[in-house]
Amino acid sequence: MRRFEAAAGLVKTKPGYLGLVVRDRRTGATWRTGTPDHVMWTSSTIKLAIATSLLERARTGEVTLDATARRQLAAMMSVSDNDAADALWKRYGGDAMVPRFQRVYGMTGLTFVPGSPRYWGFMKASADDLQRLMSYVLDKLDPADRGYLVDAMRHVGQIQQWGVWAAGPAARPGTKDGWSIESDPGGKHWCTSAVGFAGPDERYVVAVMYHLPPGTGTIDAGVHAVSDAVATVFGAPTPAPVTVPDPSTGL
C-alpha cells in the first residue's frame, strides 16, 4: 500500500495526463491512479493487440502465418518495428481487426483518431483498455500463444527496455512500449506508454500511459515518468535505469 501511495504521489507531480493501472491476477484487486480512463494515443502499444489477433486467427486456421509473417511478428514485438507492423496490418485485414480488439479483448475505449486514416498508428485508448488487453493475453489466450508473447515481452530489444521493464529484473517483467509525437488541441506533444506484467507467474498486469502537455515535455521526461511510476510500485530504484529511445524512432 505504501508503494501505491508513493506512486500516486509521483503521478500527481507530472503535468498533462498520466494514468497507471495495476491488476493483481491472483486476487482480482485493481489499483488505479492518475487518469487511467483518459484516452490517449496508443503509439506502438497497439501492436500487442495486432500480435494477439494474428496468433489467435492462425491457431483457428483463419489465416496462415508464413516464415515472413513470423519474422515480422517477432520484429514488431522485439524492437517495435514499424515496417513489420505496416506489412502485417495490410496483409491481415487492416481496420477489420479492430472490432475484435474492442469486443473480445475488452478495449472498449479504443477508437481511431477522427480525421486521420483508419490505420494502426492513428488510434487512441486508455490505460484501462491496455490493462484489459494484457489481462486477456494472460488469462484467456491459448497457452502456447500466451507463452510466445510472454517470452517476447520479457526479451525485448534495448529500445524497449523501459516502461514496465522498470519493475526490475527480480520481478521478471515483460513490456510492450509506445512512444510518439502527436497532434492534439494545443499543439504537438510526446506520448509515452507501456503495457505488460511483473511478478511471479506474471501475477501483476501493468498499464501506464502519459500524454505530455504540448511544448513542455521531451521523450526523456515521458519515458522516465512512466518508468519511475512503475518502479515505485514494485520497489525498484528510481530514477529507473532505463534506455530512452532515439526520438526519431517514435511510433
TrEMBL record:
GO molecular function, one term: beta-lactamase activity
Pfam families to which the protein is assigned, alphabetical: Beta-lactamase2
Domain Beta-lactamase class A catalytic: 70-209
Example GO biological process: response to antibiotic
Protein known as: Beta-lactamase class A catalytic domain-containing protein
Organism, scientific name: Planosporangium mesophilum
